[in-house]
Amino acid sequence: xxxxxxxxxxxxxxxxxxxxxxxxxxxxxxxxxxxxxxxxxxxxxxxxxxxxxxxxxxxxxxxxxxxxxxxxxxxxxxxxxxxxxxxxxxxxxxxxxxxxxxxxxxxxxxxxxxxxxxxxxxxxxxxxxxxxxxxxxxxxxxxxxxxxxxxxxxxxxxxxxxxxxxxxxxxxxxxxxxxxxxxxxxxxxxxxxxxxxxxxxxxxxxxxxxxxxxxxxxxxxxxxxxxxxxxxxxxxxx
Length: 238
Prior knowledge:
By secondary structure, this protein is α/β, with parallel strands linked by helices. The protein has four helices and 16 strands. Helices cover about 15% and strands about 30% of the residues.
């Protein structure tokens, strides 16, 4: 398998994986789809992070929510899910939903129409988003799967979590390549951050200690046109 993440051809095919016996598809936008449940999952959108930073005096372009929702709309259009789970830190703070421009709020509400929509409470947004459809929960279980924001300690079969914003690095031909990634070992998965203004934390950081089996750990690195399945042994810190 080539590890050239820069020169790959356009390929919209998702990457198929299995978590706790449940088939899933990794979408290169950073979403995860479970076809057996008709469920689409995203995590850590951090909507209205730009406006939150602006209120504190940081001059950043205020377009992060629009860019994030364009990607979310594309993922929903591709998979046509019956259920959408937003896995916490959907908004950068508890006032984010109220600051969102009316046209973006209307677009988000339209995405939720006709499907079950769950907002998992995160550390940035523990309260329900004001004026938006959907149900706010601390966690939700479906089949062998449990969706929550913060990964639990130690082994946790079927857990789909966020919070840590996983990223991975490989070195090829003397050059380091860093990308957001889905982090998984066949038992549990930690989602990449979906938001336009979110960074990532290397999966070799000590924050991930004890979460994954060493022998089965994979980083599904998100390239420009496709996802690359990289064995944990090929990853580098940094």
